[in-house]
Design a protein that fits this description.
Helix content: 55-70%
Strand content: 5-15%
Shape: globular
Number of strands: 10
Radius of gyration: 30 Å
């Protein structure tokens, strides 16, 4: 029997050759043992083998869980988050090999636009779900490397830190006598990050060239615009898990410069507020810091949105400050109140063809999230005013649903409105918004009426959250 025939007979049931399968298993075992050996080395040596930490099983499992929790839209390949696990079962070994060899090539991001306050639009870049997974795995490994060295005055997108902490720290600075704020707004920060400067900052702590090469590849992956791939020479697209960390790495040099000068400040991502004791000092700081940002970091300060003023006249992360009798208190910024009213108007449009139960469900859902963020304000009176206004909007919608005079009379009688008033209300031509403020409408459609139907007022939410915080 020839050697060729012997090999044919020795083939495994799935068509593979035992000798080849053995070689593959041996190579896999060698690769795994090499990765394990690298991870077992000293911390200094591990700096050169971060990619092994990135593709480690437990790290990838955590990253996968996080991506699935965040959900999100599909990228340019159309793959949904729910399809990711089945895709990885078939392709993970190939992807892992490309990452370890430094050969992985990210896909371009999908460009989407979302509205911003003021009518403008923010451009986001949505990576594919596979790239989101890899970025999340990178983030989990790189955060312990960079975060401990970040400034104590930096609060954006960091573990155990929040916007509330930044606002409370700003309040402390004001109470200590720093009653002028230098409000610096960076113009299209995420779109104008200089890649070379950012990568030089990353290379100070990351020694694994495969990780650096992958980070650079994500920065230059490009975006898909109307079916065409456009290369990105500057900027880090908002929408991927890595963008907040890269922003903090880029702006950490600004933090260190402000600390070196002895300034009191808070920074949340690209929003930076510096607190000084006089207007003259504020203008001096604004000029010098602007020069540093534009010359050293190659970024641009938006002079229209930046300014030097009293904290009461500026907003910070949706909040503002109030100083009755010299005491500093936190309040809602006027822009925040206007945005809330705009959203409530949208949810309580008279022409919206939904039931009152569904309207209340959507309203409750939105207000729950809104209040969880804004409950730290020290001005309960604004919540009561917003409650009255919201209930009036709901009464207007209800009266619109009872548009026919016969229906309206029947409903008003059931609510207990006197007969002498029913005709005046049901036959009035002034419209639902006018009627929603009438005496007997207010008496019968009172707060308890809406509470029985499931509406939870802003005041009730505010008091509950304040009592437990």
């Amino acid at each position: 029997m020839s050697s060729k025939e012997r090999r044919r007979k020795q083939k495994t049931p799935d068509g593979g050759c035992p000798e080849r399968e053995a070689v593959k298993r041996l190579k896999t075992e060698e690769a795994l043992s090499l990765s394990t050996a690298r991870l077992a080395k000293s911390p200094h040596e591990c700096e050169y083998h971060l990619m092994e930490k990135v593709v480690e099983k437990e790290n990838m499992k955590r990253a996968l869980k996080r991506v699935e929790q965040n959900k999100g839209a599909s990228g340019v390949d159309g793959m949904e988050v729910g399809e990711l696990r089945s895709y990885l079962k078939k392709n993970w070994l190939r992807i892992k090999g490309e990452l370890l060899e430094g050969m992985y090539k990210p896909s371009p991001v999908r460009r989407v636009e979302i509205p911003k306050p003021g009518g403008k639009r923010r451009e986001l870049g949505i990576p594919t779900v596979v790239d989101r997974l890899i970025q999340q795995a990178l983030l989990q490994v790189l955060t312990p490397v960079f975060d401990p060295e970040f400034s104590e005055s930096s609060y954006g997108f960091r573990p155990e830190r929040s916007a509330h902490q930044a606002v409370r720290k700003a309040k402390e600075h004001i109470e200590e006598g720093y009653e002028w704020v230098v409000d610096i707004d960076l113009e299209k920060f995420f779109d104008k990050v200089n890649h070379d400067i950012l990568m030089s900052r990353m290379a100070r702590k990351v020694k694994d060239k495969r990780v650096l090469k992958l980070l650079r590849a994500y920065l230059t992956a490009g975006v898909m615009v109307e079916g065409l791939r456009v290369r990105t020479e500057v900027g880090t697209p908002q929408g991927g898990p890595l963008s907040p960390l890269l922003a903090n790495v880029m702006l950490d040099e600004l933090d260190k410069e402000l600390e070196k000068r002895g300034h009191r400040f808070t920074r949340y991502a690209d929003d930076c507020n510096i607190y000084v004791k006089s207007e003259r000092a504020g203008h001096r700081v604004m000029e010098s810091v602007t020069k540093f940002i534009e010359k050293r970091l190659k970024l641009k300060v938006n002079k229209e949105k930046s300014g030097v003023d009293k904290p009461q006249k500026r907003k910070m992360l949706g909040f503002s400050f109030w100083r009755p009798k010299g005491e500093t208190r936190l309040r809602l910024a006027p822009e925040t109140v206007n945005r809330l009213k705009g959203k409530i108007r949208q949810l309580t449009r008279r022409t919206r063809g939904i039931s009152m139960e569904e309207r209340l469900r959507r309203l409750n859902s939105y207000l729950t999230g809104w209040m969880s963020y804004y409950h730290i304000v020290d001005t309960p009176g604004i919540m009561e005013k917003l409650d009255r206004w919201t209930r009036r909007r709901l009464k207007m919608c209800l009266l619109k649903q009872w548009k026919k005079p016969k229906t309206r009379r029947k409903k008003l009688i059931a609510l207990g409105v006197p007969q002498s008033e029913i005709h005046l209300i049901s036959a009035c031509r002034r419209g639902e918004w006018f009627l929603s403020s009438c005496k007997w409408v207010n008496i019968t459609l009172c707060p308890s009426y809406w509470k029985e139907r499931g509406y939870v007022s802003l005041s009730a939410r505010y008091n509950t959250l304040r009592s437990v915080s």
